[in-house]
């Protein structure tokens, strides 16, 4: 009986670990705190499992919007290398069937190429409320620019910008 329990627990742990592993196109996030205001927010990106793009460096494992960096002087979408242990898988819209159905490796790859070119030509620049890292990550994964943390911040502050920013109510 003890052996059966051990086998069951082992299988459960193995299956759980495999389910939580990062895969190409997963949205990843890390909590950060703004030094000047103490405001906590999440930074989002798209996980890249291997080198798939011409402009992607050999060690680059994320595609994201960033602020001032050598690779993106004025802020833009870039391929970058991050310490993946600091990030967590955050495909929160996968909980909604209509969004889960939109996930496609081909579409993710197409959207990364599209956004990279737009950023390179300065057609797509970072903007906190309408074009941030969460908008980019959700657009690449699902084809829609959505930022729930911006919507939450605006709802908390009592402002009426919600409809302008594609802030949708999700029952998760």
UniProtKB/TrEMBL annotation:
Ranges of residues in domain LRAT: 33-149
Matches recorded under Pfam families: LRAT (PF04970)
Q: Where is the signal peptide?
A: 1-16
Instruction: Supply the Gene3D superfamilies for this chain.
Output: endopeptidase domain like (from Nostoc punctiforme)
Q: Which PROSITE patterns match?
A: LRAT (PS51934)
Q: Which branch of life, at top level? A: Eukaryota
Task: Reply yes or no: does the keyword Signal apply.
Answer: yes
Q: What keyword terms does UniProt attach to this protein?
A: Signal
The name on file for this protein is LRAT domain-containing protein
| Phylogenetic lineage | Eukaryota, Metazoa, Chordata, Craniata, Vertebrata
């Amino acid at each position: 009986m003890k052996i059966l329990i051990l086998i069951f627990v082992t299988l459960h742990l193995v299956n759980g670990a495999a389910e939580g592993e990062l895969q190409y196109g997963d949205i990843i996030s890390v909590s950060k705190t703004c030094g000047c205001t103490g405001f906590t927010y999440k930074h989002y990106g798209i996980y890249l499992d291997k080198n798939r793009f011409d402009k992607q460096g050999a060690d680059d494992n994320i595609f994201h919007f960033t602020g001032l960096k050598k690779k993106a002087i004025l802020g833009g979408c870039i391929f970058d290398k991050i310490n993946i242990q600091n990030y967590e898988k955050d495909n929160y819209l996968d909980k909604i069937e209509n969004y889960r159905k939109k996930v496609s490796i081909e579409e993710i790859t197409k959207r990364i190429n599209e956004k990279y070119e737009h950023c390179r030509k300065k057609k797509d620049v970072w903007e906190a409320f309408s074009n941030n890292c969460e908008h980019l990550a959700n657009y690449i994964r699902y084809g829609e620019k959505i930022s729930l943390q911006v919507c939450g911040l605006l709802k908390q502050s009592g402002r009426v910008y919600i409809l302008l920013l594609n802030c949708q109510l999700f029952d998760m």
